[in-house]
Amino acid sequence: QHTVLVWFPCVYLWLCAPFYFLYLRFHHHGRISISSLCCAKTALGLCLASFGLLEMIYLLVKRSRDIEHQMVFLLSPIIRSLTMLLAVFVIHLERMKGCRSSLFLFLFWTLAVVCSLVPLRANIQAVDSLRSVAFFACFSLQLAQLILSCFADHPFNSNPCPVEDASFLSKILFWWFSGLVVKGYRSPLTAEDLWSLREKDTSKKIISDLEREWSMQCAKLQQCENVKALGCRITEQTQLLQKLRQEQSSGFLLLRTLARTFGTYFLSGTLCLIIHDAFMFSIPQVLSLLLGFVRDEDAPLWKGYLFAFTMFLLSCLQSLFNHQYMYACFTVGMRVKTAVMGLVYRKSLVISSAARRTCTVGEIVNLVSADTQKLMDFVVYFNAVWLAPIEIGLCLFFLWQHLGPSALAGIATVIFIFPLNGLIAKMRSKLQVQMKYMDGRIKLMNEILSGIKILKFYAWEKAFKERVLGYRENELKALKKSQILYSVGTFPCVQIAFAMFGVYVLIDEKNILDAQKVFVSMALINILKTPLSQLPFAMSTTMQAVVSLKRLGKFLCQDELKPDSVVRAPYSDMEGFTVNLTTAWFCVLCRISVKVPHGSLVAVVGHVGSGKSSLLSAMLGEMEKKSGNITVKGSVAYVPQQAWIQNATMRENVVFGQEKKESWYQSVLEACALLPDLEILPARDATEIGEKGLNLSGGQKQRVSLARAVYRKADTYLLDDPLSAVDAHVGQHIFDRVIGPKGILKNKTRVLVTHGLSFLPQADLILVMADGEITESGSYTELLNRRSTFSDFVKTFAGNEHKESSTHRGEPVNELHHIKALNRPLSDSEQEQDLEEVGKLTEADKAHTGRVKLVMYVEYFRTIGLALIIPIVFLYAFQQAASLGYNYWLRLWADDPVINGTQAHVDVKLAVFGALGFAQGIAIFGTTVAISLGGIIASRHLHLDLLNNVLHSPMSFFESTPSGNLLNRFSKEIDAIDCMIPDGFKMMLGYVFKLLEVCIIVLMATPFAGLVILPLMLFYTFIQSFYVATSCQLRRLESVSRSPIYTHFNETVQGASVIRAFGEQPRFILQANSRVDHNQTSYFPRFVATRWLAVNLEFLGNLLVLAAAILSVMGRATLSPGIVGLAMSHSLQVTGILSWIVRAWTDVENNIVSVERVKEYADTPKEAPWTLENRSLPSAWPQTGTIEFQEYGLQYRKGLDWALKEITLSVREREKVGIVGRTGAGKSSLALGIFRILEAAKGQIYIDRVDIAEIGLQDLRSRITIIPQDPVLFSGSLRMNLDPFDGYSDEEVWRALELAHLKNFVSGLPDKLNHECSEGGENLSLGQRQLVCLARALLRKTKILVLDEATAAVDLETDNLIQSTIRTQFEDCTVLTIAHRLNTIMDYTRVIVMDRGNVTEMDSPANLIAGRGQFYWMCREAGLV
């Protein structure tokens, strides 16, 4: 009492202090200012030290005689005083080192209080009142110190994550999270309520560490490959083998990199799991002692209470360590997700062009969505792969101790289960082709969303819908097989107890099954079920993770752009750059040698596919260089042939990360002819441009793209045909003001790819390209004088071109493009709105608030159908009834009296026991299969509804909804509906019915337990309601913040060449980091919420264990060991059961949010029906092709000005009509109205005297044809791109290709018509894509053809061929041409001149010119009259 109990805490502090000081020396977190908590701890410490000194003085004065014989009495207060002073020193050292909470001192004060409990009892009974008062004061101060050590000092920064500064106790019990739970219960959480990420969880920290490690690992691998390659000649075959080897080992390489980066923290979690297992296996041993106590009537009562409290303590410690392990796993999982996303994103910015073509945007998005999720699951379940067999071994060892050799029967059953589980896991991993189908589906959906306008124009939605559903059916088939195989693995677990008990009683009739043997064995078998059920899942997860690691590794090991392919030299006045290279991109360029002086204008001309764009790509370093060298001096700006526009405001697109300088910015906008556009945009340059520039016309996009380059003030400009998409005189304006000798880039080096002959005389140097070579070069006059191919070509085509594009001297440029949907002039009411709001176009993904509505559950169950729901509930009830009978039968058997050392009717008992177990096994298998099938049925319906809703949506929907939001629905949300919801329901129903069984059994044994069960249930419900409100909202916030990640990935991959050319990679990487971090700020509290709930609930559940144990001890006189064993073994399960119920329920509620998000698009506006059953059209409609507008009016949305105002006109059979007009005149609106992309606000359009508003959209759109401005192709065969419905013969397809001047090109391809087009048709040039669109029109050969500047991207010779093809092949058809080049419509029957939505003139071109109206002035401006 005066020695060991006093000295033990002091010895702990003095022995551990040096090591703790050493730890603090290397872990400095910054000094903490003195707080009231620190002052209180110091004051209490000094008081305790002074109590020791006072006791020493008291002993010297009052007990000097005793001290002479017992020096130990004097020694104890001296040691205690010095220890308290050391504790005060530690408090202040921790403060100076930034330690906010101390585990070291918490353990010291805990030991001090525990060791004072025995003297406390002695002092209560003591006579010496003064000493007792002193002891009580001292004990109170120690207790106060213990309580204070549970709190932590708080920092003074904005919204930090409280875990950083939580006390040790708060960390292990997750109390630091309670504040957010309460806040979430009071009002729905918003993103502002969430804590900022800890520094070690941020993308910046994680990715920099991982990138460094990954580079080292890759360098080592490359070194090994180089060593292997030494001595052998490196042929192409050797390189290919080397690459294949690298791809195969890349998955393991990535795993090793992740392990080296995150392994230490993961191992700390694994240690917690091992400690958890030690406590878990201790509980059955204590249960055995408790049952022995119940059977032994002479045992003292205190033993029973000791066993009861020990079980309670072990259960609590088991819970604590389990959840610390889970917390560590989820934290590592979160960091792995951040790391992998970062690596994939950075790789997508440096991947070579050849490698980029092998993986589509959809596949890259899938890598960061589905595959990162698989890796996160792997982190959580990996330990089960090696630990589960050890747990199984320990269970069988303890069972051997209780049942002897009969445990071998259990081992035999487990040995049978192992290979079965292994076989099932292997078969399920083969079914991972589901991932392949999912990849294909997401990739196809991405293309559908990118080319939705073309799908609508051509009425191809049904064909593409069938392709998506084909992938989906294969995906669900694989999922169904996988779920049935999983169900087979659940069946044998029930038979372990039957095998062991059966063998035990049959091998020797003297073997008695008493309560101790039965229920301790059952407790061990219950432990055994966990690793047995976890193992197949863990193996399956590991197999999936291996597949994902291989996919990620393969992508991360793809070839990168070589930085040395272009030498970047500092800026020099002498030369802009030097090119002298032999390069290959499918052998496109060869023998190129050219030098460009600084400040010169170089024009690159040639036919479609001659290698003009490839030359610019080579200058940017985008192509693989075979030999030679290329030098670029100074900075570079690049304008691609197809404009890449960000989903941001126009200002952000032009400034592109640079500082905004107002005067220069205005000059750039004026030069690029963008100022008149600003007048029409709702919020001027603050207007948000839709994804991929959806709400801008082709010309506007190209001018924004050019403005971005001009604003950059670079030294060298690479311009890939930027003038093709704009009107001729707008092109001339831009050439004069920007590119030409007097433009704002006049002192810069400019390389201009162009088809416009009128610009060539002003070029300093012209490069003529053919078949990837520069065939001629020189100035315009030099080339003409040579009388070569170029001079012949110029003489043939210069006439028309020169007339059309000669410099005009008219009014300022305002012949700009039509501005679509949301860019119309606003009404007065709308102009009052805030500019930012007006300019906003895309709608961010919104999070719903509050609990998920009941209607969502009804919707989900309705899709499954009552016919399947009733059998599922019945099967669950039957399964639990069989389980109750099975356990109660064991209790009766255990309590059966022993007569002459044996029990009666053992065979019958065993047979009934086996039958009940078998019935339970069958029911488990049945419920698992039924729920999985129900989930697949629901998933199929919901996906189909989502697909139908999206495909039936109007174009305005796609303009305002980012594709990332839609892709998120089709990938992550559908994946949750496929797997997570059925698994959640499976788990929840199983545990709800199990809970009913436990309650029945515990109440049968100890009815008074009802007094504990009822309050516990109420408390559970209370905590659950707190938790679910917060958890659901966190799930929604996490889902909403995930969409921008995918949208940004999508955008970056498509614009990678532009981002690289401008050197903006660091800015885009920062943006990606910020989006990922924003997502993780809601993911982190989401998984901590589950831990908070589980710890609190399991502590409450452990109270039931304590209640059942104490009531059993109190009532041992009336209770049989069998009923106590049954009650105790079941009450031990209740903690887990209750925790799993709430977790499963929350998983269901969290994931039912996916149903909510998928169903969101059911309520958005839809297009008119595709077909009308009661309105059948003649198969040959339209036969003549007459079009009649009757007082036709069009509005983009209510409240906006009229786009078309009461148009009345008629187009006769076989007429060729040109449509011209200035910006916003309504040219494109007319075409959109004919195809009903926009519905009429008033009036009608008749085609062959049929009101188009009264027929189905597909009937209309499939009978008329458009050749659009932007040529869009889809991945798949060339034949599919021409004829997705397979409605034409090969001969017809070849004929169409011949007329479109593509026959020679296609017949030269290895696969001919089956040539695989890459995503967006990227493996064809822009001109070739435009010709494919022409071939589509020729194949359909409808009576009405609409052309929207269909020849902008082709050279003049091809343009001439196309125009002649259209004139000959569509001679019998009605042709409407929205004209940008007026010379193309001068021989048309009639021209319609539009202005502000009205038809101002309509007659033959000759008559209109003669009438000297608006058309005459337009022709005069263009130099045609």
From TrEMBL:
SUPFAM superfamilies: ABC transporter transmembrane region (SSF90123), P-loop containing nucleoside triphosphate hydrolases (SSF52540). It is an enzyme of class 7 (translocase). It is found in: Endomembrane system. It catalyses: leukotriene C4(in) + ATP + H2O = leukotriene C4(out) + ADP + phosphate + H(+). Residues 561-796, 1189-1421 form the ABC transporter domain. It is a multi-pass membrane protein. The chain crosses the membrane at residues 6-26, 38-60, 72-91, 103-120, 132-152, 262-284, 304-321, 378-400, 406-424, 484-507, 860-878, 910-938, 995-1020, 1092-1111. It comes from the Eukaryota. Keywords: ATP-binding, Membrane, Nucleotide-binding, Repeat, Translocase, Transmembrane, Transmembrane helix, Transport. GO terms for molecular function: ABC-type glutathione S-conjugate transporter activity; ATP binding; ATP hydrolysis activity. The keyword Nucleotide-binding applies. Its main location: membrane. Residues 269-544, 872-1150 form the ABC transmembrane type-1 domain. GO terms for cellular component: endomembrane system; membrane. Its EC number is 7.6.2.3. Belongs to the ABC transporter superfamily. ABCC family. Conjugate transporter (TC 3.A.1.208) subfamily. This is ABC-type glutathione-S-conjugate transporter. It comes from Pygocentrus nattereri (Red-bellied piranha).
